[in-house]
Design brief:
- The protein has about 180 residues and is α+β, with helices and mostly antiparallel strands.
- The strands form two sheets. A three-stranded antiparallel β-sheet has the order 3-4-5.
- The protein has two domains: about 80 residues, Winged helix-like DNA-binding domain superfamily/Winged helix DNA-binding domain (Arc Repressor Mutant, subunit A); about 90 residues, no CATH class.
- Helices cover about 40% and strands about 10% of the residues.
């Protein structure tokens, strides 16, 4: 069975998921953010089969999210290091972690996002980089960009006019680790 490729889809979410859309790939990226660089470290920390890890690392390198840096010539061994493109995945990873921690934690928080300067745990929020304003469902909608197709423009026209969903006031609007 052949999987449909979304690499050239108009939707940026589909294109992004095509690059990182399986659990192993996201977990490999998580480990890379934790500082893991070596094949055997990824394998040990994730419990992933070597052939699957090889495929996922090769794909991450081919897609430009990671690069290989040789640390041994005999035998040939490489570190797998995040590129700028890979490091740009960090907000997605942090958001996924906050969501998972908030909704699927068994005994409370297992990890926290901490400010380096103060050591204070912080809560993740999505803000407008230009104004610093909090991005909320009530105050924002998804609009078509300049390259959007007519079909996408029609679908997103409904988004602009839709009323925001009711939110649960007992759940904070921002994610917490």
């Amino acid at each position: 069975m052949f999987k449909k490729s979304h690499k050239d889809a108009q939707c940026p979410m589909a294109r992004g998921i095509e690059r990182v859309g399986d659990a192993w790939t996201v977990l490999i990226l998580r480990e890379a953010f934790y500082g893991t660089t070596r094949f055997d470290e990824f394998q040990k920390r994730l419990g992933i089969a070597p052939n699957m890890l090889t495929r996922r690392l090769n794909t991450l390198v081919e897609e430009g999210l990671m690069t290989r840096q040789q640390y041994s010539a005999h035998p040939p061994r490489d570190d797998y290091v995040l590129t700028d493109l890979g490091r740009d995945f960090r907000p997605v990873l942090l958001t996924l972690m906050a969501w998972g921690s908030r909704h699927f934690g068994h005994d409370g928080e297992t990890i926290q996002l901490v400010e380096r300067r103060s050591g204070r745990p912080v809560r993740l929020a999505l803000v407008d980089a230009e104004t610093g304003d909090l991005i909320t469902e009530a105050g924002h909608y998804i609009a078509p960009g300049p390259a959007a197709s007519e079909g996408l423009r029609a679908r997103l026209a409904r988004s602009a006019q839709a009323q925001p969903l009711e939110s649960n006031p007992s759940v904070p609007a921002t994610g917490a680790f």
